[in-house]
Design a protein that fits this description.
By secondary structure, the chain is an all-alpha fold. Helix content is 55%, strand content 0%. The protein has a domain of 112 residues: Cytochrome c-like domain (Cytochrome Bc1 Complex, Chain D, domain 2, Orthogonal Bundle). The radius of gyration is 33 Å and the shape is elongated.
Length: 245
């Protein structure tokens, strides 16, 4: 028994000496292992790029954006999260998207994902969470005096009680598409003729397109008459195009 114990002690001591060896190749041996315990103890994370050199001012990776710029695909929303902001959005904010079957279909799809679980697929306030009494007091759109502007405002900031903001889950276009569908549900619940509303929208869209064509033609005529100042005319056209975007 003593012989086995001594052999074990010798083997353990030899293993300890080998593992703790301090030769010059010790680091290379450790870094070349196929499996490493806490590898970041041997190999540093690549922070040196931001600690040395003059790539970034002050060696800071995250720089402040240029003053006056916004993130791509995002525009500031000027209506405040208040009763006054809600009232202003309800009265003033208009849906920039055409009232088309495509936008309605997309709006319905998005509504069923984000809204129907509470408001119901028909907008009658009888969603799954209401039926299972997880949430109570969701009104029907038939009992609400809402507009597409107020619908968008509530999706952006969130509503009262349980409804939160959906600004991070949806884009600007998607919120307006949902607003179209909610508007259609509201009109259906109130027994209003959606076709009349669609025809009004189509007329407004046609008038808008006509105005754009007239503006374009006028711009071309002015450019041809003032052909002696092409550079000035080009600058004006570019400025107008930027404002339109």
């Amino acid at each position: 028994m003593n012989r086995y114990f001594q052999t074990f002690i010798y083997a353990f001591a030899a293993l300890l000496i080998v593992s703790c060896g301090g030769d010059s190749n010790a680091v290379d041996v450790k870094s070349d292992r196929s499996v490493q315990y806490f590898p970041n103890m041997y190999e540093s994370v690549g922070y040196e790029t931001y600690q040395e050199g003059d790539i970034f001012e002050g060696n800071v990776e995250a720089q402040l954006p240029v003053e006056g710029t916004v993130n791509r695909g995002w525009l500031p929303y000027e209506y405040a999260n208040s009763n006054e902001g809600y009232a202003s959005a309800k009265a003033e904010l208009k849906n920039p998207l055409a009232y088309t079957e495509e936008n309605l279909a997309t709006g319905q799809e998005l509504y069923n994902i984000y809204c129907a679980i509470c408001h119901g697929t028909k907008g009658d306030g009888k969603g799954h969470l209401v039926k299972t009494e997880k949430i109570l007091g969701v009104p029907s759109y038939a009992d609400r005096d809402i507009s597409q502007g107020s619908i968008y405002h509530v999706m952006y900031w969130g509503g009262i009680n349980y409804m939160g903001s959906y600004a991070s889950q949806t884009s600007i276009e998607e919120r307006w598409q949902i607003a179209h569908h909610v508007d259609a549900l509201t009109r259906d619940l109130k027994g209003q003729d959606a076709k009349e509303f669609v025809s009004v929208q189509e007329e407004q869209n046609a008038d808008s397109q006509t105005e754009n064509h007239v503006a374009d033609d006028h711009g071309v005529e002015m450019h041809s008459e003032d052909s002696h100042d092409d550079d000035h005319g080009s600058q004006e056209d570019n400025h107008s195009s930027t404002e339109g975007e």
